[in-house]
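Throughout our pipeline, every protein is held as a single compact record rather than as scattered files. This encoding replaces a full spatial description with a residue-level series of whole-number codes. The remainder of this section carries one protein's record, kept here as part of the documentation.
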Amino acid sequence: MNFTSGRKNTQEVPQLRCSAGWTSGIHGVFIYLSAFNIFLSITAVLGNILILDALRKVSSLHPLSKLLFRCLAKTDLYVGLTVEPFSVVYWMSLTHGQYTLCR
């Protein structure tokens, strides 16, 4: 139960989260987040490919620094290739009603 200022509230937290007032305008937010995440995914992939190419060509960096930058770029590249597209698929499935917020 949810307690506020010593009073007992009759609604539980899952009921409040799944109320019609909370979920009514959420689909527009999911569309905005999906579009923004697609942009971030493309930017992450192209930017990190460019960084990896630049690190391959540069020879003035210390080898351990070069290794660190390569690992960081590869990690971010893999996030842009996997995590961000999967989150777009999840949000769009919520928008199109194939998966509900309140199970």
Observations:
- The longest helix spans residues 63-95.
- The chain has a mean pLDDT of 81.
